[in-house]
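Hi L., both proteins are below.
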Amino acid sequence: MLTDWNVPFRTLIDAAPDGMVVCDQRGVLVLTNSEIDRMFGYAHDELLGKPIEVLIPERVRSRHHAHVASYVAQPRLRPMGSNLDLHGVRKDGSMFPVEISLSPCATERGMLIIAGVRDVTDRRELERDKVRANSYLTSAVEAVQEAFLLFDEHDRVRMVNSAAREMVGEAGDAAIIGKTFEELSRAILAGGIYDLAGESPEAWYQRRLAYHRDPVGTLEVRTRAGRHVRITERRTAEHGTVTTIADITDDVQRAAELGEARELAEAASAAKSEFLSSMSHELRTPLNAILGFAQLLERDRKQPLSQRQLERLGHVLRGGEHLLRLIDDVLDLSRIEAGRIAVSTEPVAVTEVVAEVVHTLQPMAARAQIGIVVAAGAEPAPAVMADRTRLAQILMNLGSNAIKYGKPEGRVELRTEVRGDLVRVTVVDDGIGIPADKRDRIFEPFQRAGQETGPIEGTGIGLTISKRLAMLMRGTLGFESEPGHGSAFWVELPRHRQAADAQPVAAVSARPSPLAAGARRHTVVYVEDNPSNIAFMRDLVEELASVELITAATAEIGLELIRARPPDVVIMDINLPGMSGFEAVRRLKEWPETRAIPVIGLSAAALAADTSRARDAGFHRYLTKPVKVDELTRALEDLLER
């Protein structure tokens, strides 16, 4: 035991951060510092004179004497524990990991062995955490379905998953770790993994290298096996690169299938539009003659019809108008579904529109023995922002439904009320009501509240159109109903905050035609191949004394007549035998002597695309069959009187 160590030396070793022990050649402890005492749980100098084996695990004590003797025989500076699993044993028997450094010290009393002891518990815990974190990272990378490669700042592969190995394994050396990007890319090219699509290997490599150096977006390539892959690269904070290679074959195929489905849907939509256009034309052409002559008979002043004849004629007009409404409803629904219908919102006087709708529906209500009125005592409603024509269409739909589904001797009432920033118009009836199980589908096309096979006429799309038109005008449409007691359908539209100089749109009042009096001073050429329509036009112009009508059955004959005797206005059918109306107008616009003659298009084609095409072709106006006498008369007045 060393008892004469001077105080400064003892103070020095006690200040050391690591534990220090000194033992003689027999392994007996002759000196310990305070860190050893603390580390192993002993009191000051309690270890002196004890064998050093008390500080090591019992399982290795029997062999330790031999280790000490071996070291004494060949003493040298030697670290221990950096690659060994060494443990120290505390006084209480608990163990902890340590690292030990041995150093011999020759003294006049013989050789001493100095051992530096370090508690590495915290470091081992950090190492275990690091190993665990690396294990998690490795597992996560392996779990990624896409091929994954991590390049370091020197552009060498540092991490790779099995998907990447599988993808590039056939390129040559399976040991990917440590390869540079260039080496790996060259190996992939040599292995023929990718389909170069006619591109040279060097050009492909340069393109791939350019993306690797500046990875913006993604790079999509195809493999020789017919698979589509997407390469994505991102820079790391350590100036490395993360590369993922995802198989997107299913996505590409799905996109192709969606594209084909979209093309089929568009083709089907185009076919539907073409069918509707054709149907409209075929139905409107005979309706033009039916309704046209019926209107002329009703207006005939030379040979007025008897009251009985007028009543029967009224049935013809109502039936024809109903058929025309059905055609218009189908076309409207088609246009709304295709997003090709537009509304023009402006300040509209609700009170006036309601009054007009009630007046228009009066005859229908009278035939059904139902009274239709505006709510008594109602204050004039403020204007709303709406399309006047579409608002009237909605109220006509709601009103006609209320009459059709009403009870004889019943009542339909139209009410208006202001609800904050909205104005609500409600159509109330005391009819049959709507069954509870039909209400959820009342606004779906062709749903007629259980009356699909009943005597009530209709297609079941009026409410569908009305609701969608209300939405286009930033409004809503709803209802309340009680079976056996009636229904209340309402439309709400935004209230117009009227400026001082703003005036709501009012209806245009009818007036006598100025073309009905005076000598013949205007010439109109009508090009039409249908004899009934020609006869109708002749009867119509008979009432316009100042207009002379010249007819032609084909566009070719019509062009000769127009050039020989330029008229004031041309009325041109579109679907003609031989040359079409579009081609005829194009030629009229080419000739200087006919270029300024206005042409009114008259056709049974009533889709929005037809109107747009006619406008682009150079028609001054485009009217659809069945033509309204007043509408055609006003168009002639605008052109001829001007």
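That was the first. Here is the second:
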Amino acid sequence: MTSAAQYRVIAEMEYTPAAVERGYTGKTLYVNVGNGAIEERPVTQQMKDLFIGGRGFGLWRLWNAVEPSTKWNDPENEIVVSPGPVAGTTAYPGSGKSITVSLSPLTGNVIDSNAGGYFGPYLKFSGWDAIELQGKASENVIVLVDGVAGVIRLLACPEEDVNTHVLADRLLKTFADSEAPRDLAAVSTVTTGVGAENTRMGCLNLSFFDMKRQAVRVKQAGRGGTGTVFRDKGVAAIVVKSPGVKPDSNRPADLAQLQAAGSKINKEILELDESQCDMRRVGTAHLVEIMDEYDLLPTHNFKFGAHPDAGQIASSIWRARFGQGMPDGCWLGCTMSCSHAVDDFELRTGPYAGTKVLVDGPEYETAAGCSNLGVYDPDFVLEANFYCDTYGIDTISYTTGLAFAMECFENGILDTEKTGGLDLSFGNADAALKILHQMARGDGFGVVVGQGIRRMKAHFASEYGADPAFLRDIGMECKGLEYSEYVTKESLAMQGGYGLALKGAQHDEAWLIFMDQVRNQIPTFADKAEALHYYPMWRTWFGLVGHCKLPWNDIQPADNEQTAEPAKVPEHVDNYCKVFEGVTGISVGPDDLIRQSERVYTFQRVFGVRMGFGTREHDAIPYRSVGPVTEEEYDSRVDRYDAQLRDEAGVDPSGKTTAEKVQALRAYREAQYEELVDRVYERRGWTPDGVPTLAKLQELGIDLPEVAAVVESHQ
């Protein structure tokens, strides 16, 4: 057992942990890692009314910390982690989420990213509704939140290996009262790794202790580079030590109401999951073969949506390799239990080659990202998955960014001289791993890939004379954030879901592919605009209160398809109303939940405008996500595209060259996207340039003087 005494105390503050009452402690924790200032800050009633918690609290604290000129690597930038009022509930599945908010190294704009694990609930039960870190340390530091002893300490970190799988395990054993499983499970950490130091796409790893495996595991706040901010500030870890978790730790207004709602969905999960998405046995990896079947699985930088080798990384492979033979949950009481892992995987490359490790996942996004590289080797997926996690690199930005570089290699923009001898052909697994290790070390061509697609585009144009228009078309990023792993060419609504997402191209706001492309449930522009209002607001709500979205629609009641709006899963929406009321004592209906989200969502859009973003030009998307960029793409689906030209665009393809058909289809599809943007802005109460109107702020009750001033300067 390592002693905590080895960590030199830089600053400390004793405190009496605030009791949770109806989901809130009423306090947030501020730590300036540069000057050692530690403060408790009050949570006002206005904060709870307007911003709810989670992502809302993070945005509000960040808004008050930065100026319009603040950059991601300025000391004034903050990392804020907040769990939300419902987080920590054990009666309802998926109630362990927390949200990280910061200014992004990739986008320059506000980023939010959610993660499971125990950290958020443990932070709350240690007396805090959020933690905000500001400043820059002159040495590696650890922030310790000891909710048992009632002390906050800023500690010097002497550890040489800060990669997550090493440091998280070390800290767990150092700060737990003993190595007994119950004591180890009382500690949770936030860590990252050297990859976050040397790229712009660093992720944060939030830990939980797996009682079955007797090992620490992690879930990622992956998007936008929050891990990079973490390491730029000199933070090696946050450690929280919780006084324990009980069914009533949130001191809910009505525990019986919570338990009744939980009992209903738990019964559905246990009875229906295996015949629906099988989340308890295979998790999100079940999507690989489904996406491949519907031409939605990205391969070769989103050129195509299916591949004959996709079965080699499909769910049957992972079902056989996931360990422990039972469901795995990343929060207590979650019967969805979709957080699977592979045990004793032996690494073959990198600094830990020959070591047997525990690999969390893979999730769908990681497996599909490897498909995007043209690699269908499950061992590669696991090796890349592990190293991305321990290095603190977002698997989505890594695979999507490298796929872009591979297409540039395919087109002669790059060659082995420019890549330092690496053959970046699609399917070259060895080169892909070498790039990953270079990214972590900060050397070789990995430095270029680690800057993200937006900066690669500028570099390849200026240094290598590449055509900026072609790079724009195939560079799968929006707002500077790399696309997550869905091919959207045949779903206008999903194109809008990516392009209009506040933080960049991430599917967690509006995953509309099946509603739009497969089921044709939203055929008109009005239908799509309504969906692009409702679903981003609905999904935002999970990040306000501390819920995971998966129990909402990845398990459905047996009679769901007979309801008026099955895509909304109305029984579960009703459950969430009861859960929120059960915790907070505030009576709400479905429209109230949407209203809560709309306030925060609109505020975040204004925040983006304040930081120099948040207008129409930033909602533009690469044409690769709209339609076929190349003749090769068009010819691969020639019957489909010819029919669309004829039947939808009113253009006869007969006698036209493939190049002419590509351009005709492009003109039609780009016009469709622009009309969709117009309709969505109108539905959301925004101007034609994408700025929320003052009337919308007033309607939502967020016309605070400093918020209204931003909007008024753009009207």
